[in-house]
Amino acid sequence: MRSSAEIFNKGAQRYRRKLGSSLLYVSMTLWLAASLFLFPAGAQTITFADITSQSGIRFTHNNGAFGKKWLPETMGPGCAFIDYDNDGWPDVLLVNGQDWAGHAKNGSTTQKLYHNNHNGTFTDVTAKSGLAVSFYGLGAAIGDYDNDGFDDIFITTLGQSHLFHNNGNGTFKDVTTAAGLWGPNEFSTSAAWVDYDRDGKLDLVVSNYVQWSEKGDLYCTLDGTHKSYCTPESYKGTSARLWHNIGGGKFEDATQKTGFYDPTSKSLGVAILDYNDDGWPDILIANDTQPNKLFLNKKNGTFEERAVSAGIAFSEDGIARAGMGVDAADYDRSGHASLIITNFANQMLSLYHNEGNGLFVDEAPRSEVGRATLVTLGFGCFFFDYDNDGWPDILIADGHIENEIERVQKRVSYAEPPHLFRNLGNGKFEETTTKVGPAFATPKVARGAAYADINNDGALDILLTTNGGPVHLYGSQGGTNQSLRVKLIGTKSNRDGIGAVVRVSAGNDKQWLTVKSGSSYLSQSELVLTFGLGSRTKADTVEVQWPSGQVDKLSNVSSGQTVAIQEGKGVISQRAYGKK
């Protein structure tokens, strides 16, 4: 691929010879010069190497499967990055299932917490952390719900979900009952922390799938003979829940009074975004075989569902697809947050472009991301700038739910390679899965997906979980572009700065990101933001718009470092890449 500079020079020479007019030449020169800032720089040679073994992470998901093909077996697991000890290095949380009662197969399995040793390796600290507990876990969300400066963990389960309070000494305590969260016995999937009323305290959204029980498990078949996993259409739906943080470490169920209640939903993914740019967080729910939901924040403690009028409830042909994972980002620098939603095999990815007028348009059928994802089954997904060129790329974790699917659908596989799409600018993407290393492109039965800079080099690494199989940690290698990482510390706003918008300008290059919990599928990426700067060695301005309304502005911030910005105070610490 030619660089933007080469395109400019050759284009200018061609037009000068052809037009023979100095005025037209100048006009063309200006237009081509401006185009340098509309497209990313040329592609780099970047590899995602499987570093799981050398990292010391040892984990195999237990879905409990014993031959009966019960629906929950197909779903997990999720994963999350959490800097639980505030040392500036992201640690790894892995969610696990368990054997079914009366059907012991794998023995006792628990959640896992791995501490980052600052040298590319991790140590299993599960036992001493208090997280060595066994339940049928599915997903996780990370956030400091009591603003004490230490991130807490919410784990969704089949049954009673759990809130673990970070004690600040490397241990966690199960405070589910004390927090007022005990009671709902549901099939909970993805979750996200969000300060929906902007009172400085994090509230909690919990997605719920269907009404399923061992006794109520239905018999379904693909071939008329053998039992298969049932589609969710076979089961009744159930509403997602919205828990309001009332302070003092306690929550109240605000699902009904906020207008969030919807018993028809069969929810798997949740993303927080401000889709109408009014400064208040809205909530997107991805539903499986039911219309997706988009809850508009009415700024008075209530929500109004807008998915149909926004154009994201159904596919272009009016079908409710099987939505799995979700994420939101401004991938084309329009100034508005657009969406991706992963769907079932033969449905392709949804790439909903935010038109800025309350309406989304699905660009996937006309793009490479649609064609490439038509027959794969996507779960985890996110926007992230893997090559640090300043343009959000897309990752999709793929894997089918039925291990015998190839017997009835020849084009569809059980284990599938992930999808990695590089953002080319101008709303275009190209698939680069096979260009980033053979280990990454190996077929997997993937589910959860998250990203973080695990080794403090300014490049984002990838964590993928597999259903009933191992976890994969992929280290980014070979990138040369510059980046700047930003960690927020709220004071009037919530401590994590969740919901804050950070805008970075470098020359004519402008981009923005939101600090967010949730997104992907059952998983959460790190809360530190990474801005790719290409060849630029500094950001001219960094502006933070906090949920409280506070705006902090910085100038001439060098790349190659992580800066911590405290609300109302500015930069309180800086750490160059490569330093421990």
Features:
single chain; 580 residues; mainly beta; 7 helices; 9% helix; disordered N terminus
Describe this structure in words.
- The chain is mostly beta strands.
- It is built from seven helices and 38 strands.
- The strands form nine sheets. Strands 6, 7, 8, 9, 10, 11, 14 and 15 form an eight-stranded antiparallel β-sheet that branches. The chain has a four-stranded antiparallel β-sheet with strand order 1-30-29-28.
- Helix 1 packs antiparallel against helix 2 (22-35).
- The longest helix is centred in the N-terminal third of the chain and has 16 residues, at 4-19.
- It is globular.
- The model is unreliable at 1-37 (pLDDT under 50).
User: What number is the mean pLDDT?
Assistant: 93
Shape: globular
The percent range for helix content is: under 10%
Instruction: Tell how many strands the DSSP assignment holds.
Output: 38
**Biggest pleated sheet:** 8 strands, antiparallel
Low-confidence residue ranges:
1-37
Number of helical runs? 7
What distance lies between the first and last C-alpha atoms, to the nearest angstrom?
37 Å
Rg over CA atoms: 23 Å
Structural class: mainly beta
Sheet-strand content, in percent, reads 35-45%
Break the fold down into its secondary structure elements and pairings:
Elements: H1 4-19, H2 22-35, E1 47-50, H3 52-55, E2 79-82, E3 91-94, E4 112-116, E5 122-124, H4 126-129, E6 137-143, E7 152-159, E8 162-166, E9 172-174, E10 186-194, E11 203-208, E12 220-221, E13 227-228, E14 241-247, E15 250-253, E16 267-273, E17 282-287, E18 293-297, E19 303-305, H5 307-310, E20 326-329, E21 338-341, E22 350-354, E23 360-362, H6 368-372, E24 378-384, E25 393-398, E26 419-425, E27 428-431, H7 438-441, E28 446-452, E29 461-466, E30 472-477, E31 482-489, E32 501-506, E33 509-514, E34 529-534, E35 538-545, E36 551-558, E37 561-566, E38 570-576
Parallel strand pairs: 31-37
Antiparallel strand pairs: 1-30, 2-3, 3-4, 4-5, 6-7, 7-8, 7-10, 8-9, 10-11, 11-14, 12-13, 14-15, 16-17, 17-18, 18-19, 20-21, 21-22, 22-23, 24-25, 25-26, 26-27, 28-29, 29-30, 31-34, 32-33, 32-35, 35-36, 37-38
Helix pairs in contact: 1-2
